[in-house]
Specification:
Layout lengths: L20 E5 L6 H11 L3 E3 L3 E2 L14 E2 L2 H9 L3 E7 L2 E6 L3 H6 L3 E5 L2 H11 L3 E7 L3 H10 L5 H15 L7 E4 L3 H16 L8 H8 L2
Parallel strand pairs: 1-7, 1-8, 2-7, 3-4, 8-9
Antiparallel strand pairs: 3-6, 5-6
This protein binds guanosine-5'-monophosphate.
Length: 219
C-alpha cells in the first residue's frame, strides 16, 4: 500500500532563507557590467545595490537606476551621518554603498548584487562576512583586456595606458575573493557566475527555514 502524499511537501526553494550580498569585481573591460546586467535580467531574486557616486552621469545613465549621483557636499553629509556600508575613492571620484534597507531585506531573503571594487569588498567583508559572497572576473589575457578597452572607441593611447595600469592594480587583488572566474566566453562565464550564486543560496547556514522543516520531518 502506498501512503497518501503529505500536504506539506516542500523543496528547498520554498523554505525561508537569508539573503546574500553577491559582489562582482573585475578590472574594467573584463565584462563584469554585462554579466551583472544579465544576472539582474534573468534572476528575479536578486536586485542591484545602487551605489552613490560623485562622478557625473555618463550618457544613458539614469539617477536611481545606475547610481545615485550626488555632489561632494552631499557625499560628505552621508559620510558624516554614517549612511554608508562602505565607501572608497575610485579613479578620482568617490563611490559608496548606502545602508538603506539592506540589513532588513537580507533577513527577508532578498539577495543584493554589488558592482564594487576591491576596497568596497574588503569593507563589506569586515562588516558582514557571513552574508558576503565575492566573485572576481578575470580577462582571458592582457591583450584581450587592452583590446576591449580600445574597443570602447574614443579614448587616446595615454588614457588606454592609464586604464591598463589601473586594471593591473585591480587584478592584483584577485586572491582576496571567494571565487575567481575567467571570462573567455561570456555565456560560459555568466553560467558559472549563476551557478555560484545558486549554490551559495543553498548553504545550510543561509537556509533558516531548515530548522522548523527538519523538526517536522523528525517528529
Ligand atoms: P564606473 O565609474 O565605471 O561606474 O565605476 C568605477 C569603479 O567603481 C568600478 O570598479 C566599480 O566597481 C566601482 N564602484 C562602483 N560603485 C561602488 C561602490 O559603491 N563602492 C566601491 N567601493 N566601488 C564602487
Amino acid at each position: 500500500m502506498t501512503s497518501a502524499p503529505s500536504d506539506k511537501t516542500q523543496d528547498s526553494d520554498t523554505l525561508h532563507r537569508r539573503g546574500l550580498m553577491f559582489i562582482l569585481s573585475s578590472p574594467s573591460g573584463a565584462g563584469k557590467t554585462t554579466i551583472a546586467r544579465k544576472l539582474l535580467a534573468s534572476d528575479e531574486e536578486i536586485k542591484l545595490s545602487v551605489s552613490v557616486t560623485t562622478r557625473p552621469p555618463r550618457e544613458g545613465e539614469i539617477e536611481g537606476v545606475h547610481y545615485h549621483f550626488v555632489d561632494d557636499a552631499g557625499f560628505d553629509r552621508m559620510v558624516e551621518e554614517d549612511d554608508f556600508y562602505e565607501w572608497a575613492h575610485v579613479f578620482g571620484h568617490r563611490y559608496g554603498t548606502p545602508k538603506g534597507h539592506i540589513r532588513n531585506a537580507l533577513k527577508d531573503g532578498q539577495d543584493f548584487l554589488f558592482d564594487i571594487d576591491w576596497q568596497g569588498t574588503q569593507q563589506l567583508y569586515q562588516k558582514d562576512q557571513q552574508d558576503t559572497v565575492s566573485v572576481f572576473i578575470l580577462p582571458p589575457s592582457i591583450d584581450a583586456l587592452r583590446h576591449r578597452l580600445e574597443g570602447r572607441g574614443t579614448d587616446s593611447p595615454d588614457i588606454i595606458d592609464s586604464r591598463m595600469e589601473r586594471a593591473k592594480a585591480e587584478i592584483s587583488h584577485w586572491a582576496e575573493y571567494d571565487y575567481v572566474v575567467i571570462n573567455d566566453n561570456l555565456e560560459m562565464c555568466f553560467a558559472k557566475v549563476s551557478e555560484i550564486l545558486n549554490a551559495e543560496r543553498m548553504r545550510r547556514t543561509r537556509q533558516t527555514g531548515l530548522i522548523p522543516f527538519v523538526r517536522e520531518l523528525t517528529l
